[in-house]
Amino acid sequence: MRADNRLPRVLHALLHMAEMKGPATSSQLAKMLGTNPSVVRRTMSGLRDAGLLISVKGHGGGWSLKKPLEEISLIEVYEALGQPQLFAIGLSQSGSGCLMEKAADQFTANALAKASSAFQAELREVKVSEIAHQFKNQLESGAGRKQHQI
Amino acid sequence: MRADNRLPRVLHALLHMAEMKGPATSSQLAKMLGTNPSVVRRTMSGLRDAGLLISVKGHGGGWSLKKPLEEISLIEVYEALGQPQLFAIGLSQSGSGCLMEKAADQFTANALAKASSAFQAELREVKVSEIAHQFKNQLESGAGRKQHQI
DNA sequence: ATCTTATGTGACATTTAATGTTACATAAGA
DNA sequence: TCTTATGTAACATTAAATGTCACATAAGAT
């Protein structure tokens, strides 16, 4: 499967939007993200439906934040995207009804469930504004000193 | 991406192999797993290289366990498969060098890293024999009572 | 009113990494 | 030497994501 990049891309877009005065058009965001406007509209529509963004048609229109980054946690973004499939690993699902297969699938599913819980727990703890702060820190350290980079 | 089923499939195969007297041929395993012999050989070769299985050519040959299921943890199986890509979610990786993108990627990668740790920690705690025990429990409850199923 | 700039949306192409398939070399028992 | 296996490479298929294109719709600008 091709990797799903929507989460980091949308986060990236939110950071740019927070630094803009007016709305960002799909074309502008597409250039920032290295994709095209249709992909932006398709991807952002979920965030609008979830109440994180507003979209406006016509002259001077585009996409804007409905609330500040301090009030948006990563889990909200993930959910607004429709909770994209997290794993590239799946179950056997041969449909044979073999009880050994079922047992193997159950243990696999259990390990995946623990991973998913950890992932979502982390997303719940982080606000998008924290990413913005890290960006600003990197700006500073990138300008003068390099020795603090890991 | 298409889901990677190797982990649950291999676990399923190990359970069958533990119940067989002699070696299991790739054809036999392929029927049990709902695939074909080449896939079995390709998949099992990693477990042989990792010292979990032995493969023998010619008459009476096939695949056998090199050690009992009690001594094989799920993490060993996962590693023997070459640690298949766990996530369907990836980073932006546009290569633009945008620091906002980097910050978004770092936070995404961090959440994925926590998920991966949880996944591997769970795999480390479980032996393949435990899956075999669950299979036997399901056999019992499936034979007589159904009321304990969830 | 009409033009221009946007989003909204559906259909289809492309990409990518997995599994599936086929063919044949190689090893070893019968 | 025949038959049964694994070993392996090459290629086909599949699935799910992103990429692309076309056109409808809405709203400010002229």
Average of per-residue pLDDT values of chain A:
93
Q: What's the number of domains of chain A?
A: 1
The main sheet of chain A orders its strands as 1-2
**Helix share bin of chain A:** 55-70%
Shape of chain A: elongated
Strand content of chain A: 5-15%
CATH superfamily membership of chain A, which one? Winged helix-like DNA-binding domain superfamily/Winged helix DNA-binding domain
Largest interface (CB < 8 Å)? A-B, 60 and 60 residues
CATH topology of chain A: Arc Repressor Mutant, subunit A
Rounded radius of gyration of chain A (Å): 19 Å
Q: What low-confidence regions of chain A span 5 or more consecutive residues with pLDDT below 50?
A: none
CATH hierarchy, class of chain A: Mainly Alpha
Largest sheet of chain A: 2 strands, antiparallel
Summarize the helix and strand pattern of chain A as letters: HHHEEHHH
Give a structural overview.
Chain A has a single domain (6-143), classed as Winged helix-like DNA-binding domain superfamily/Winged helix DNA-binding domain (Arc Repressor Mutant, subunit A), CATH 1.10.10. The relative contact order of chain A is 0.13. The radius of gyration of chain A is 19 Å and the shape is elongated. With 150 residues, chain A is mainly alpha-helical. Chain A has helices at residues 6-19, 26-33, 37-49, 74-80, 99-125, 128-143, and strands at 53-56, 62-65. In chain A, helix 4 packs across helix 5. The mean pLDDT of chain A is 93. A two-stranded antiparallel sheet of chain A has the order 1-2. Chain A binds a DNA duplex (30 and 30 nucleotides) through residues 1-6, 25-27, 35-39, 41-42, 45, 55-63, 84-85, 88.
